From TrEMBL, chains A, B:
<comment type="similarity">
    <text>Belongs to the aspartokinase family.</text>
</comment>
<feature type="binding site">
    <location>
        <begin position="173"/>
        <end position="174"/>
    </location>
    <ligand>
        <name>ATP</name>
    </ligand>
</feature>
<feature type="binding site">
    <location>
        <position position="47"/>
    </location>
    <ligand>
        <name>substrate</name>
    </ligand>
</feature>
<dbReference type="GO" id="GO:0005524">
    <property type="term" value="F:ATP binding"/>
</dbReference>
<dbReference type="GO" id="GO:0009089">
    <property type="term" value="P:lysine biosynthetic process via diaminopimelate"/>
</dbReference>
<dbReference type="GO" id="GO:0004072">
    <property type="term" value="F:aspartate kinase activity"/>
</dbReference>
<protein>
    <recommendedName>
        <fullName>Aspartokinase</fullName>
        <ecNumber>2.7.2.4</ecNumber>
    </recommendedName>
</protein>
<dbReference type="GO" id="GO:0005829">
    <property type="term" value="C:cytosol"/>
</dbReference>
<keyword id="KW-0220">Diaminopimelate biosynthesis</keyword>
<feature type="binding site">
    <location>
        <position position="74"/>
    </location>
    <ligand>
        <name>substrate</name>
    </ligand>
</feature>
<dbReference type="GO" id="GO:0009090">
    <property type="term" value="P:homoserine biosynthetic process"/>
</dbReference>
<dbReference type="InterPro" id="IPR018042">
    <property type="entry name" value="Aspartate_kinase_CS"/>
</dbReference>
<feature type="binding site">
    <location>
        <position position="184"/>
    </location>
    <ligand>
        <name>ATP</name>
    </ligand>
</feature>
<dbReference type="InterPro" id="IPR054352">
    <property type="entry name" value="ACT_Aspartokinase"/>
</dbReference>
<dbReference type="InterPro" id="IPR001048">
    <property type="entry name" value="Asp/Glu/Uridylate_kinase"/>
</dbReference>
<keyword id="KW-0677">Repeat</keyword>
<feature type="domain" description="ACT">
    <location>
        <begin position="269"/>
        <end position="344"/>
    </location>
</feature>
Length: 412, 412
């Protein structure tokens, strides 16, 4: 069997007509002789609507009941897609996450897939049936449904592709691939035909919304070839292929950056003049982690007279809570807290940057020339990120896209 | 443990505010020390909305996928009710039908409960928790969810009450009990405080919409005391108690009819001049049953010269299909078919009618006096039903309600 896993996001199944269009695409793939497992998200804004209802009936809905509630969104989509396929003469069957053998554990609302029991899916595929699986959900040890948190449907698809040893995992979304920058900002932005897991994961973490980094990392772990495609384009061509290791080497050995990504939802918190010593950072970040607050860029200044400054960024929605926690900690360490919202991030990502410090310098120079102040810097092997004022982000994306010659390059 | 099963229908949980009102009622019952299992239907018109979606994506949605889709309606209600109870300090937990151990078999869309594994519910009740169970669904041998068809949530509640050996099963609905006639038609109609299973089942079959006869019959089988109450009234009093056997004997020995019920959705089909013989009726009604068409009143005329007339009633929605089948059969039996829609039924129901043929005579006389033509008659031990023109039904209900002295009687 040549098994392909396809995943359609919420915007691809938002209405009955969207579902029929997806059914057309699935039917075509089925006719071409592939064995198909199709992962579907909840229709359009269903999840938001259900969450709103939950907050109408309860001031603090329990995570277990939220999961019980939200899981129904995907369960509706899979049943509807199966029906639409029947109408096209395709023998499809819908499965909830538990029915598909998806096992999960962890906290409700952010479950982690622990195991997939593929027997039922494999036996259905052998009968020539198309298997439609509800994304974003699994069953825990209690027999209860558990949602997988952000990026859960992408993660379901990639995990299924790994468990079923699928030829590839196709992620259908509302854009036709990964771009060198956001085309709405940088008019010269081009689609990236092939990208490595590492680059894609960095781009996803740094602001590219197309695929969740968690799913990309899972793909890397099991070496699942991932294709990102538009669910609205008729042609099967185009898109971006994400792969790694040997496969990537054979396809290209790129020596440049892959793209520019940005994020407009950034706030900074700085603890200044705090006493430093072993365990200082842990005293700051453990209470944040306990409250489930994700911290992005972290910068610590060199200590001076036994004190130093520690700055970090968070998303704006958690800024007030994070600042409150920071104030408590700073108080106990003899320092003060200062913060700033209305910031953004811009990142240059690419394996081409490995061992090439010149790229960071070029980024700083480009921003300096345009008098864009850099508030914080974070670097890793394959990316450089600068935190800058929000109103300068679009300009920075355009300038960097040009400076790194992303417009002119022909890389396939 | 004193276990009570409560059931709330779709209109009782139609909005977030309705759900909160149900939570208030459940919380009060919980505070009074009862162990509660609460069965909930899908919110308001959810089931209709989902069915509409199904017919938008498919011309003939598969029964399995319809069940997968519809089951989500109840699953949303139970999660929301559990959340609302948490807000009131009540430790509630929602369970889908499969999670609650409801096993079912039969055809998708009309599953039959075969077994209830109450272990999880009992252990939760012992911990003092309120258990909220999705009505209308169970799990079949494949591990798939299956809906229980019409009256499924009432049936779930009564079956749970039997399995958990509950003290009683309370059915909350939008009316405050069973009436001697429809109060919108007969202004003197009174609530019936106590009624037997047999009478209630007859009334339900003959048109009383408050409770499904299937649930009543299950209650009779396991001797479950059923209370029908309004979910909108604050007081716990009122309503109608349905019971049987010894319990009923002790409470009352009524010698009169219980009430007048009617049904406006009736069509008649008559096969005339068909050759009679052994197996004739089976040749007529087997093909109808195979197509899932329920037949209500059946009348066969005395055979004359080897032929006879057979007439039966169906609901209007299946009339065209039933007539087509009847025409085929009649053709092969040398007869003709004639039909009539725009009919209604009016029935007089009560154990007081046992061995009292006078009641049927009184009914015919009352209708004759008002010049209401009787098209068909059907009688059983505890009811007499007349099929009459639809436009005469309301008048007939009023006249019979008065003739059987249902307005004046004081029976509790």
């Amino acid at each position: 069997m040549r098994i392909i896993v396809q995943k359609y996001g919420g915007s691809s199944v938002a209405t009955a007509d969207h579902i029929k269009a997806v059914a057309d695409r699935v039917a075509r793939a089925h006719e071409s002789g592939l064995s198909l497992v199709v992962v579907v998200s909840a229709m359009g804004k269903t999840t938001d609507r259900l969450l709103r209802l939950a907050h109408e009936v309860s001031s603090e809905p329990s995570p277990r009941e939220i999961d019980q509630l939200l899981a129904t969104g995907e369960e509706q989509s899979v049943a509807l897609l199966a029906m639409a396929l029947h109408d096209r003469g395709v023998d499809a069957i819908s499965l909830t996450g538990p029915q598909a053998g998806m096992r999960a554990e962890g906290r409700y609302g952010s479950g982690v897939i622990t195991e997939i029991r593929p027997e039922r899916m494999l036996s259905l595929l052998k009968q020539g049936r198309v298997v439609i699986v509800a994304g974003f959900q699994g069953m825990n040890a209690l027999g209860d449904v558990m949602t997988l948190g952000r990026g859960g449907s992408d993660t379901t698809a990639v995990a299924l592709a790994a468990a079923l040893e699928a030829e590839r995992c196709e992620i259908y979304t509302d854009v036709d691939g990964i771009y060198t920058a956001d085309p709405r900002i940088a008019s010269g932005a081009r689609r990236i035909p092939v990208i490595s897991y590492e680059e894609m994961a960095e781009m996803a973490w740094r602001g590219a919304k197309v695929m969740h980094p968690r799913a990309v990392e899972l793909g890397a772990l099991y070496n699942v070839e991932i294709h990102v495609r538009s669910s609205f384009a008729f042609a099967e061509s185009g898109g971006t292929v994400i792969l790694g290791g040997d496969k990537l080497q054979r396809i290209e050995t790129r020596e440049t950056v892959a793209g520019i990504v940005h994020d407009l939802d950034v706030a900074r918190i700085t603890l200044s003049g705090i006493r430093t010593g072993p365990g200082t950072l842990s005293r700051i970040f453990s209470p944040l982690a306990e409250r489930g607050i994700s911290v992005d860029v972290i910068v610590e200044s060199a200590p001076k007279e036994g004190t130093s400054d520690v700055a970090f960024t968070v998303t704006r929605s958690v800024y007030p809570e994070a600042k409150e926690i920071a104030e408590e900690v700073a108080g106990s360490l003899g320092g003060a807290v200062e913060g700033e919202i209305e910031l953004g991030k811009v990142s240059v990502v690419g394996t081409g940057m490995l061992n090439r410090p010149g790229y960071a310098a070029k980024m700083f120079a480009t921003l300096a020339e345009a008098r864009i102040p850099i508030r914080m810097v974070s670097t890793s092997e394959i990316q450089v990120t600068c935190v800058i004022p929000e109103e300068k982000v679009e300009e920075a994306v355009r300038l960097l896209h040009r400076a790194f010659e992303l417009e002119e390059r022909e890389d396939v």
